[in-house]
Amino acid sequence: MDLIKNLLKGDKLSIARVISQVEDDTGYDILDRIYPYTGNAYHIGITGPPGAGKSTLVNAIAKKLLRESYKIGIIAVDPTSPFSGGALLGDRIRMGDLSLQKNVFIRSMATRGSLGGLSKKTKDVALVLDAAGMDYILIETVGVGQVELDIAQVCDTKIVVLVPESGDSIQAMKAGLLEIADIVVVNKGDREGSDSLLIELKFAFDLKPKTGWRVPILKTIATDDSGIDELVKEIGNHKEYLEKSDEIKKLQKMRILNQIHEYIETEIKRHLRETVIDDKELDRYIEKIMERKVSPYKIARKIMENMLKGG
Amino acid sequence: MDLIKNLLKGDKLSIARVISQVEDDTGYDILDRIYPYTGNAYHIGITGPPGAGKSTLVNAIAKKLLRESYKIGIIAVDPTSPFSGGALLGDRIRMGDLSLQKNVFIRSMATRGSLGGLSKKTKDVALVLDAAGMDYILIETVGVGQVELDIAQVCDTKIVVLVPESGDSIQAMKAGLLEIADIVVVNKGDREGSDSLLIELKFAFDLKPKTGWRVPILKTIATDDSGIDELVKEIGNHKEYLEKSDEIKKLQKMRILNQIHEYIETEIKRHLRETVIDDKELDRYIEKIMERKVSPYKIARKIMENMLKGG
C-alpha cells in the first residue's frame, strides 16, 4: 500500500493519516503491518507539574537534536501544553514554528472526553512515529494523573522537570515523580529559590542507594536555551548507559508486555460491549441492584463467567 | 460478624478495618455483604487544578455540614491534598483537627505506585462509607488526570474549584472541567482577578444551552469560611433538583453500571495473570516480538482467543 510506503519514508501527511486510522481503532492491520519497521526510535519522557515549562523544554531539546540532523517526533499528552493548544497564543506560535520544520512531527493527544484508552493510544502513536523513522520521540506528560505517569514510565529516558515556585502543593507530587526520574531538571533556573531547590534535590538523591546510573540534576532556562546543551549531553549519556548495561532490553520488554496487556484489555472491553451483555438483561440487573437485592459484584461475576464459557 | 455490625453503626475503627480488607482485594465477600446497606449517602465531588484550595473548601463544607448534624465521609484522591499528607504542616494540622471529630471519617487514596485500579478502589471505599451511615461523602480529586475526572463524574453534585491565578496554563484544563460542573466556585475570592474570572465564567455559562439546572457560579474565601453558607445551600438546591427531576436515579444507574464494568475488568486482569498466560510461553513470545517477527497485537489476540475458549 502506498500509504505505508510513504509513512516509512517519513512523509508527514501519511504519518497523520496512519495515526488517524490507528486512532479509529478499527482493527490492528496497520499496526501489524508497520510493526516490523519499529524498534529504532529512542523514547524520551518529559514530565512534571503544570507550569514547569515542559513544552518550552521539549521545544529546546527538539531544536538541539534537529541541529544534529536527527528526526524528531513529539507527542503532547499534557492538557496544559501549548502543543495541544492549551496556552497563550504567543507560545502556540513559537511551537508552530517548530512544527513547520521538515524533520519534526508533532501530535497532541486529547486527555479529556475519551473514557480510557489514552495510554494505549499514545503508545500506538509512538509506534507510528517509530516506523516513520523518527530517531527520537519526545513524550510530554503532566505528572499528575496515573495514566500520564504510566506513559512516562515506558520511556527510555525519563526527565522530571521542576520549578522553584512549584510550591508546597507540589511537594507530594515530587516524591512520586522523582522515583521515576533518570534526569532531573530545575527549569526557570534564573528565578529565586532555584539554587536551594537544586541543593535540596542533590541532597535527596545522595541519600538514595546507588545504582549503575547516577541521576544528574541540572539547571536550565529553557526560554533562552540555557543548559540545554548539557541536558542533551546527559540524555546521550543515559542512552549509552542503557545500551551498555543491557537495561535498554529490559525497557523494550516492558514496553512490549505493556502493549500486550493493553491490547487485551481493549479487546475484552469491546467484546463485552458487543456480544456478552444484552442491554435489556443488564437493565433488569441494574433494577435489582438499585433495590439492593443483589450486588454489582455478583452480577459482574455472572457476566464474566458467561464470557469465559464462550458466552 | 461483629466487624460488619460495628461498621453499620459507624464505628471508626471498624470502618478503617473494612476499608483495609476491601483494599486487599481478596474476594468481594465484604462488599457483597455490606451492599444492601448502601445507597443512602449523597456524593459530592470537588475537583480543580492543583493549588485551587480544594482541601480547604472540603474542610469548610464538612464543618458546615457537621454543624447541621450530618455524618461526613471524606475521600482525598488528590496527591496534593493536605488530607493525603501533601501540604504544609500547618495545613495538615488544621485538617487533622477535623479528623478527630466523631462524625467524620477521612481517607486518602494513594494515587501513585498502584498500577491502575484507583477508580475502582475509590468507589469501593465510598461504598464502605455509605454503609457506615455517612450522609455525605466528599470526594476531592485533582482535575488533571483521566482517572480522577472519572471519579468526579460519578458524584451526585460536582463542584469545580478555580482560582484567578490559575493562569493560562490551566485554560485548557478549564474547558474539560467546566463541562462536568454542577456548581462552579471561584476560591480565594479576595485576590486580584477573581471578579473578572467570575464574569468570564458567568458569560461562558450563559452561552450554553439551557437545561433544568442552571449552574451557579460562586465566590468563596474558604480559609475564612466566606461564601460557604451559600455554597452548601446551592449543594442542597442541586440535590433537590436531582431528586425532583429523577436525575438522581440516572446517576445511581450510571454508578452501578460503572461498578459492574470495573469489577469485570479487575477480574479479567486477575484471570489473565493467574491462569491464561504461562510465563515461559510469554517470554518466548516477547523474544519473537523483539525480533519483530510478530506484533504484540497478534500475540494479544491469540491469548485472548484462548481465554474466551475457556483456556
Can you walk me through this structure?
2 copies of one chain form a homodimer. Chain A is an alpha/beta fold and 311 residues long. Chain A has a domain at 39-245: P-loop containing nucleotide triphosphate hydrolases (Rossmann fold, 3-Layer(aba) Sandwich), CATH 3.40.50. Helix content of chain A is 54%, strand content 12%. The first copy, chain A, has 13 helices and 7 strands. Chain A has helices at 2-8, 12-24, 29-34, 54-67, 89-99, 118-131, 146-153, 171-180, 194-206, 228-245, 247-276, 279-290, 296-308; strands at residues 42-48, 72-76, 104-108, 136-142, 157-162, 183-186, 217-219. Chain A has a 7-stranded parallel beta sheet, sandwiched between helices. In chain A, helix 5 (89-99) links the parallel strand 2 and strand 3. Chains A and B meet through helix 7, helix 8, helix 11, helix 12 and helix 13 of A and helix 7, helix 8, helix 11, helix 12 and helix 13 of B.
